[in-house]
UniProtKB/TrEMBL annotation, chain B:
Domain DUF112, first and last residues per copy: 18-437
Entry annotated with the keyword Cell cycle: no
Transmembrane segments: 20-47, 59-84, 104-129, 136-158, 164-185, 197-215, 320-341, 353-377, 389-407, 428-445, 468-489
The name this protein goes by in its record: DUF112 domain-containing protein
PANTHER family: TRICARBOXYLIC TRANSPORT PROTEIN (PTHR35342)
One Pfam family cited in the UniProt record for this chain: TctA
InterPro entries referenced in this protein's UniProt entry, alphabetically: DUF112_TM (IPR002823)
UniProt keywords, alphabetically: Membrane, Transmembrane, Transmembrane helix
Amino acid sequence: MSESNSRNLSQRITAEHILLIGLLVVSAYMFVEAAEFRDPSGMFPRFIASITFLGALVLLLEPFLPAPLRAVVSESGDVFDSYEEEIEEVEAQTEEMDDMTTDREPTVDSKEECDNETSAEAVTGATDERQFESHSILPSPRAAMENKRFVLSVMTAGYVVLCYLISFLFASPVFVFAYSYWVDHDWYITVGLTAGAFGIVYGFMGLLNVQLNSGVLVG
Amino acid sequence: MLDALSEAISIILTGEPLLWLTVGILIGIFVGSLPGIGASLGMALILPLTLPLDGVNAIILLVSIYSGGMYGGSIAAILLNAPGTSAAAATTLDGYPLSRQGQAITALAMSAVASTLGGFITIVLLILISPFLVRMVLLFGSPQYFLIALLGIAMIAIVARGSLIRGVVSGMFGLLIATIGMAPMVPQQRFTFGDPALFDGISFVAALIGLFAIAEMINLAGEEGGVAQTDMEITGSIRSGISSVLTKPYLIAKSSLIGMGIGSVPGAGSTVSTFVSYAEALRSSDDPDSFGAGNHEGLIAAESANNATIPGSLIPTFSFGIPGSGSTAVLLGGLIMHGLQPGPNLFSSDLQITYAVFIALFLGNFVILFVGLTFISRMGVLTKIDTDIIIPMIVVLAVVGGFLLRINWIDVLTVFGLGIIGYYMKRYNYSVIAFVLGIVLGPIAEENFARSLTLSDGSLMIFVNDPLSLIIVIAIVALTIGPAIRGVFKKQLG
């Protein structure tokens, strides 16, 4: 029982929760640290940190708030809402037309809608296609998408570290080559992009007269 | 005033600014036409490269990218129903249906002419009202600058699309980040961990590069294949596009003024102005039912408001250092990087620079018109560049560009760290623009607050004891409690 509870809890923790916890930790630290500052330089950060902390806390505890308070938390502050409502109808009409004629990748907005759909389907039952996906050995397009974003984030982190170690001039082609190889570009595109990355950094060096060819291990 | 204007014209006629203007418009059209890239990202990436340029040329280059990007966004919106920039979202409503009806060239010609005319009208208007702006800006002292910064922060209520609390948390987090480094007025290092690289604080340009470049690339990485997923046969008539726009001067004037007016509200930006302009065209149309199915008025309204937003957004940016959008935030970074302090100076001793930028924007519209009408049938090529080719190059430009800002590894970490945070903020609807406003306005607010209190020997009455301050205070209160009151009214009206 407790095992399934903890599994449920871990499934419900999203990146947003981690973002909010991060904000709580940072704002709490800044609030405490600012108390040590000479007056009046601590006043402003303490004030801002306290609002950030309270805001993040309210958002973190949003599901546990009573319904009226929850409505206040999700209340939109956008004063242009009324205009959006006015054109929503037109947009829906256009999307309908688009759906009938094309079969395109979802845009960011429609992806967000997909997120909502997914949660709704968790209650009402998934569509046939999604059921197929969930039983398939192949990863779903959504999981593949997330995987690609995660790999790019990790590669970028690696690139930053590599720049520190072997310099921008040598790390940039390595990063571009690795990315191109991973996304399976044709060899001539990979070579072109790798040379391009080297050229860009080399161009910066010449143009701005800055040392970009020395890292901790090189130069 | 006329002296400054003639000096500005002679600056432009030296030739070099004309070159940067053309380069900027072309880069802008290129980045604007790539869905997911856009003007602010292009400007953020180019910003470190402007270091060898002198201030005027650098600002002309940046503002031209902004202008070109605004127009470029409509290309993908019309051909693919995928707006290159959020500002072009309203263009998709009638632009794309026109393309599907075989009138892509007509729609693209309409977009070029309407954008150009919107830009022309509002730039001339901006030059005409600039003497009044000068007088207004000179009325502002430290207390009013603090209040204006506070007003900008209160604008988070407008910017925060979706949950107000999420918007406030984003803005406050930005303000918090801005407190890192040396405190204003008092020699006190804050949150620096004793590292000299942090003594000057977090570079907001590095933050912008992270938020606009890295975050956007992570987002784009999840989209399979090329930027363009459909093929569109480009047919239609340039002549009918031009004549359709020229027969609606009232609509263009009205949409341009809406664009400029809303563009001058910090935080509102071109996305809002184009939708408001579109909604107004729909409201006042004799044929509202055809909106969304390829109505020319809908496209013209959105496009003329689009480029008209730029002069409007320059008003708060140049006058008070308050950016109206991501693009103007980068522009503000460019001004500061090149030693041009927004505020009274840009309207007194540096007035010729301000006018040179305005004239460059005016001339830039000719380039937009020329490119828009000459290469119209080849525009589709821009939208077919594979995402996976763009991503690694932009990551390289962002990381190297971040380092070049101050030759500082903290800036590289800022680019990367805020890139990751920015991606998740966007994903969970935390307003990135509110965050940017926080970072930009934090130092202005804190510094002018401290200076005002020094002037008044600690009395807060300095913020309400003159009519101008009082008006700003009332505006701040209205903005802060406005959404809550609106919510109550909404509930009462059912």
